[in-house]
Structures are given as C-alpha cells and as structure tokens.
Amino acid sequence: MSSLKYLDLSSNQLSGLIPDAFGNMRSLENMYLYSNQLSGLIPDAFANMRSLENLYLYSNQLSGLIPDAFANMSSLAGLDLSSNQLSGLIPDAFGNMRSLENLYLYSNQLSGLIPDAFANMSSLQYLDLSSNQLSGLIPDSFANMRSLENLDLSSNQLSGLIPDAFGNMRSLENLYLYSNQLSGLTPDAFTNMSSLENLYLYSNQLSGLIPDAFANMSSLEYLFLSSNQLSGLIPYAFANMSSLENLYLYSNQLSGLIPDAFANMSSLEYLFLSSNQLSGLIPYAFTNMSSLLHLDLSSNQLTGLVPNAFANMSSL
C-alpha cells in the first residue's frame, strides 16, 4: 500500500503494539488511530513517514517516553498524543518540527520542565500540555511563539511568577494556567495581549494586588482570578475592559469598597465577588449594568446598599 495517503482506523477495538510496518507507508499523509486500546511504546518507525501531515493517537494506552523520532517528520502539522500514559520529559526534538501547527499532549504523565525548544516552533498555533506533572517556571522562551493562538498549561505543578513573555504573544486568544502553584504576576505580564479573549488563572497561589495591566486587554471576554490570595482594592482599570462578559474574583482577600468602575462594563453578564473582605455599601455602579445576569456578593463585609442600587438591572 505504498501509494496510500489516508488511513483512518479510529474508534475501534484495536489492541497491542503499533506495528513497525507503518514506517513503510512513505506516501501516507493522514493517519488516525485514536480511541482504540493500543499499548506499548510509540515506535521509531514513524521517523520514516516523511509525508505525514496529521497523526492522531489520542485515547489509547500508549506508555513510555515520547520518541525523538518525531523530529524527522518535517511535514507534520498536527500531532495528538493526548489521553495516554506517556511519561518522562517533553523531548527537545520538538524544536525541530517547524511545520507543526497543533500539538496536544494533555492528560498524560509527563514531568519535568517545559523545554525552551518550543520557542523554535514558529508555526505552532495550538499547544495543550494540561493535566500532566510538569513543574518549574513558565519559560521566557514562549515570547518567541508569535503564531500561538491557544495555550493550555492548566492542571500541572508550575510555580513562580507569570512571566512578561506572554506580553509578546500578540496572536494569543486563549490562555489557561489554572490549577497550578503560580505565585504572582510580573507587572507587564499581559500588557500587550490585545487579542486575548479568555484568561483562566484560578486555583493558584497568586498574591498581591490585581495589576492595572488587565486594562489593556480590550478583547478579553472571560477573566478567572478566583481561588487565589489576591488582596487590596479592586482596580479602577477594569473600567476599560469593555468586552468583558465574565469576571470571577471570588475566594480571594480583596478588601475596600466595590468600585464605581463596574458602571462602565456594559457587556458584563457574570460577576462573582463572593468570599472576600469587601466592605461598605453596594454602590450605584450596578444600576448601569443592564446586561448583568448573575451577581454574587455573598460572604463579604458589606453593610448596606444605596437606594435603587439594582434599579436598571433588567436582565438580573
């Protein structure tokens, strides 16, 4: 079958090892083996499949290390190894895969640091490393990934500050960093991210003030900062986030008054400020939030509300 270009064996009950014989299919461009019961190591035979553009092996029982053999697959644009039992380090060999646009490694047992080699993957648009055991700092080398649109590093053991590197990722639309051990944000971490629409930072150890840098994120629609250790006042900078539809700040240590800045957030539909230390009166600011569907101010230290505070909230 030397001329075969497309092979789809997905969603069957195939078991055992992936045969080395696939390495002889030099013309194959698309190969789909996902959702089977394939086990064992990923064979080095894939290194011979230079024409392969898409390889989907997700939802099997593959184990062991990710082989360096992928570095020779110069035409590969899509690689999905997610939901297996792969372990060990993410190989530096990925840095040689300049044509790769989509890489999914989530839900494995990968450990160690995120390699700087990703910086060489100039075509990469989707990178999902979530639900592994990756540790250490988020590398500054992400700053070079100018084509990246979606980055998911959630549910790992990443620590330290969220770096300024993200500020250079002008194409990034979705960033998922939740459920790690991140401790803070550098002042310019999100300064130039004008394309970002979804930012998920909940369930970390973020502390200190909420930075004004969020004010420049004009496209942001979802912002999740809940279940951290953020303190101080809610910044007036939120007033500039005209596209924001969902804001989750619950379960922090925020204090002071609820700012009038919310009055300018005409697109906001969901606002969760519960389980903080907010005080004073519920302000007039809410009267202009006609799009608001859900407002949670529970478990704070609020003492009352101004007259007609909720007068114009027809969607609530």
UniProtKB/TrEMBL annotation:
It is found in: Cell membrane. GO terms for cellular component: plasma membrane. InterPro entries: DNA_repair-toleration (IPR053211), Leu-rich_rpt (IPR001611), Leu-rich_rpt_typical-subtyp (IPR003591), LRR_dom_sf (IPR032675). Keywords: Cell membrane, Glycoprotein, Kinase, Leucine-rich repeat, Membrane, Receptor, Repeat, Serine/threonine-protein kinase, Signal, Transferase, Transmembrane, Transmembrane helix. Pfam families: LRR_1, LRR_8. Its EC number is 2.7.11.1. One of its GO terms (biological process) is detection of stimulus. One of its GO terms (molecular function) is protein serine/threonine kinase activity. SMART domains: LRR_SD22, LRR_TYP. It is a single-pass type I membrane protein. It is an enzyme of class 2 (transferase). PANTHER family: DNA DAMAGE-REPAIR/TOLERATION PROTEIN DRT100 (PTHR48060), NON-SPECIFIC SERINE_THREONINE PROTEIN KINASE (PTHR48060:SF24). This is Putative non-specific serine/threonine protein kinase. It comes from Rosa chinensis.
